[in-house]
Write the structure tokens for this entry.
Amino acid sequence: MARVLVTSGPTRQYLDPVRFLTNGSTGRMGQALCQALQDGGHQVVVVSGPVEVAYPDGVEVVAVVTTEEMLSACQGLLPACDGVVGVAAPCDYRVEHVAERKIAKTGQPLLLRLVETPDILATLGEHKGDRWMVGFALETDDRRFRALAKLERKKCDLMILNSPQAISSVDTRVEILDPAGDVVAAIAGDKRSVAARIVAEIEHRLVRRG
Amino acid sequence: MARVLVTSGPTRQYLDPVRFLTNGSTGRMGQALCQALQDGGHQVVVVSGPVEVAYPDGVEVVAVVTTEEMLSACQGLLPACDGVVGVAAPCDYRVEHVAERKIAKTGQPLLLRLVETPDILATLGEHKGDRWMVGFALETDDRRFRALAKLERKKCDLMILNSPQAISSVDTRVEILDPAGDVVAAIAGDKRSVAARIVAEIEHRLVRRG
């Protein structure tokens, strides 16, 4: 049995009190992974951006809004966990200056300067110690190549590669890459059964070796 | 009895296949207004951006993603409707050029040039004929003044003024402004009861006079 930190859902980066930058992550894959981990007898704490899904009873939920908040919550939780499953889709850009008041329309273009938010898994990876980490990569081009680069940069032990079509759908199709760049599994189906297969791979390759 | 066109939920304006600009509208107020209109015996067609809520059975739902799609759907439906309730929170800026592929992070700032999307109610208002139109205004500053300016620009018959706190909460607090700038009602409560009161005002002031 492991104590697992899961990140789930999107984050939001506000431009002003009303408008924000985000993505279509619904938290459903995170929900399915929490359930599958719990079914496997593991303790789960999920740090989740704003979602409409409900996480399973018995899972500790920490609700956050921005990427910075998600990182900060994870940094607090990591020391007490054995592994991390980073399925969240944190918004990776923020506006440099957030407007305190709603930006009024003027009829003119609005120029925004976006800067990158901290990379949650890469930051956690720097202090992972003997903990295992599983990341997710959503790529549209050079998919395996980019996913493997992410695995290395984020110091992950496995990287789950999926595609944008999966982000708000019921079904999904993923490949699991190991640090050698090999596809150790290719799984398709509804998110619940794919989550169960991913957890089985994690248990086989990471949890039991600890 | 009237045939009523309702707009509901947020819209999304994509930067690339993954990231988009939006707001926290959940569609709950739209859902409540559809229900209240239907309870009043009216026929309802709702044009809705991406939401997790379910609209009442018997309501015709047209699902859209972007502001341009919402406008286009409304323009097609308007001729057959007697009135419009515009409770959607359409994203009012879009990036000038949408990237076909996911924008890769480079470590450098990303400069975005946003341009305004078409104003749905103002555009519909130009061809409203003898139809009535009710708008919603979400303002953080100079609230009544800005709401009244919107009422005039959008050629609305009533403007419902609410605040950002309402956008993803269960409870809400609104003021109803008429074209003279008078607050004809101030209502607070859960969205369902507020929706019922708004529909009662619409029936009293707009539907019955037709």
